[in-house]
Amino acid sequence: MNEALKELLDLLDLEQIELDIFRGRSPEERIQRVFGGQVAAQALVAAGRTVPPERYVHSLHAYFIRPGDPAIPIVYNVERVRDGRSFTTRRISAIQHGKVIFTMSASFHVMETGVEHQAAVMPDVVAPESLPMFQDRMLEVVGEDSPWREWLARPRPVDARYVTPLTWEAHRDPELRGSETNVWFRYDAELPDDPLLHVVLAAYASDFTLVDTVLLTHGLAWGASNVAGASLDHAMWFHRPFRVDDWMMYAQESPWSGAARGLARGEMFTRSGELAVSVVQEAMIRVS
């Protein structure tokens, strides 16, 4: 397990400071705002701490309201909205400087049997072992003397391998533009058999590439274009148990953008092709 993954797991180990009140911190990095996937993951951990372990999270709906300040802790207040016979609902507010920066509603469900079908089909893509890691591929694009080199050399908790073009590649070559992104990802260490942990880590990883799918359509790229953006809302549905220390295929598409916003949808499949997670996100995207 590399140091970045150890640090992430430590960030997800929230401190309980009162009944249904938790405190989380951010990594010690020079960043302007807290990564949205981190806030979503920590909020889901806080909610899970108030729910019996036999109830599994099946959905979340979140809004990013204000940018998070990485210099101070984030306080998570959990409201116990309902504890029913089969479903449990929690509402979580993330607070900094006395203001709400993020809200989430999460629903948990006892394991039941019922009708089953899967219409979604995993894209027919090459195996992850045949693809370079994101940072190696990105370094080829920007060059060894790029100021991005130091950032790319940092260890990462998630091993991501793109099947489709990177936004920087499409920025330089219009022929590579498109509205779909396919990425293999996994956490490169054996993780505990805790279903909530794997869901939380999927939520963390889900925010890395969705907005990029919108940018890819227009040949835009963070750091290479005059583009500014931020996640507005984020929704996830968890369909079956899965493990993020096994390879997951994250198939994403952007059906629409306009009015300084962009919409992206994603589906996470197990390597065997089972649909495990569905994701939808809208983001603010402004080009100057």
TrEMBL record:
Reactions listed under catalytic activity: a fatty acyl-CoA + H2O = a fatty acid + CoA + H(+)
Entry keyword annotation includes Transferase: no
Record SUPFAM superfamilies: Thioesterase/thiol ester dehydrase-isomerase
Subunit structure as annotated in this protein's UniProt entry: Homotetramer.
Gene3D superfamilies named in the record: Acyl-CoA thioesterase, double hotdog domain
Name of the molecule in the record: Acyl-CoA thioesterase 2
Family (UniProt): Belongs to the C/M/P thioester hydrolase family.
Superkingdom of this protein's organism: Bacteria
